[in-house]
Specification:
- InterPro entries: FCP1_dom, HAD-like_sf, HAD_sf, TIM50.
- Keywords: Membrane, Mitochondrion, Mitochondrion inner membrane, Protein transport, Transit peptide, Translocation, Transmembrane, Transmembrane helix, Transport.
- It is found in: Mitochondrion inner membrane.
- There is one protein chain.
- This protein is an alpha/beta fold.
- The chain folds into 2 domains: 16-93, no CATH class; 114-286, Rossmann fold, CATH 3.40.50.
- Helix content is 49%, strand content 13%.
- It has helices at residues 2-53, 73-93, 143-150, 164-174, 241-254, 260-268, 273-311; strands at residues 114-118, 125-130, 134-139, 154-159, 180-184, 190-192, 195-197, 210-214, 227-229.
- α1 crosses α2 and α3 (143-150) runs parallel beside α5.
- It is flat.
């Protein structure tokens, strides 16, 4: 019995020693890995400074004098490297162009009086994934009618933070009639505070006549006065938002409003602008019916008196 206990203690001791040795080996491998990573980082930094910091050359291979040429050699390379990094940062954060849309159409072509800027994801279509079918994209109920009716008053522009390689094929299938005039994707947005923001200042349109319909206020935070917010669509088939939006935009377009921001500012004070528009429509309809009844009631005695006059002998 004592012999078995002694063997057990020896075995545990050997196992503990093996664990300690394995921990030491693991720590040693980790230190080597960190060392190699550090050396690699230093070498990469030197390469980056050399590659991005070297002066540009002309067609004959001569160095082109720039604003850093008068500095000491090391400072020249470092300064040019930082300039290149700032350029890449601006490339990521700022739109690819300061003028995202071409100039408005001139006669004899017809330029719609207003511009309608639409998000596509979860506003017109919704991505849906299942094990059986994989990725599919559902059309929001009423989207075909919506595009057709809005094209009567608006120049329709898709402006989204999605990649073009994803969006363009979807829009080709969504809009075979070509109601959408322009498509702007991620490289046309500003990257601010972790969000891709749509900057309407680069749209090359009069902002008094630009309406943005979106569900994400972060993406339109530079121009909240031009935004009409609607609920984000989650793929439900009983959604009627686009039909209500048709009514709102048709009224706005046919009213020939000079500055749409005044109308949008009124509705933006409500939590659900589209619901408030429906309520206003209901009140207007009731008022029109009441006015019609009042008008008819005033006309009725005149008719009766006229009839009595004809019947007098």
């Amino acid at each position: 019995m004592e012999l078995d206990d002694e063997e057990s203690r020896e075995r545990r001791k050997r196992e503990e020693q093996e664990e300690l040795k394995e921990m030491e080996r693991a720590w040693k491998r980790m230190k080597i890995g960190f060392g190699l990573f550090g050396v690699g980082g230093i070498l990469f930094s030197f390469w980056a400074i050399y590659y991005f910091g070297k002066p540009a050359l002309d067609e004959q291979g001569n160095e082109i004098v720039d604003e850093f040429s008068s500095l000491p050699l090391v400072q020249q390379y470092i300064a040019r490297t930082f300039k290149s990094l700032n350029h890449f940062q601006r490339f990521i954060q700022e739109p690819s162009s300061d003028k995202l849309l071409p100039d408005p159409l001139q006669a004899p072509y017809i330029q719609p009086p207003y511009t309608l800027v639409l998000e596509v994801k979860d506003l017109l279509i919704h991505p849906d994934w299942t094990y059986k079918t994989g990725w599919r994209f559902k059309k929001r109920p009423g989207v075909d009618v919506f595009l057709r009716e809005c094209s009567k008053y608006f120049e329709i522009v898709i402006y989204t933070a999605e990649q073009g390689m994803t969006v363009f094929p979807l829009l080709d299938a969504l809009d075979p009639s070509g109601y959408i005039m322009y498509r702007l994707v991620r490289d046309s947005t500003h990257f601010v505070g972790g969000h891709h923001v749509k900057n309407l200042d680069n749209l090359n349109r009069d902002l008094k006549r630009v309406v943005v319909v979106d569900w994400d206020k972060n993406s339109t935070k530079m121009h909240p006065g031009n935004t009409f917010s609607i609920p984000r669509w989650s793929g439900n088939d009983d959604d009627t938002t686009l039909f209500d939006l048709i009514s709102f935009l048709s009224v706005l377009g046919s009213s020939e409003v000079d500055d749409v921001r005044e109308v949008l500012q009124y509705y933006n004070q409500f939590k659900e602008p589209i619901t408030q528009f429906r309520e206003n429509q209901r009140k207007l309809s009731e008022q029109m019916q009441a006015d019609e009844l009042e008008k008819n009631s005033k006309q009725t005695p005149i008719v009766k008196n006229w009839s009595r006059g004809l019947m007098k002998r």
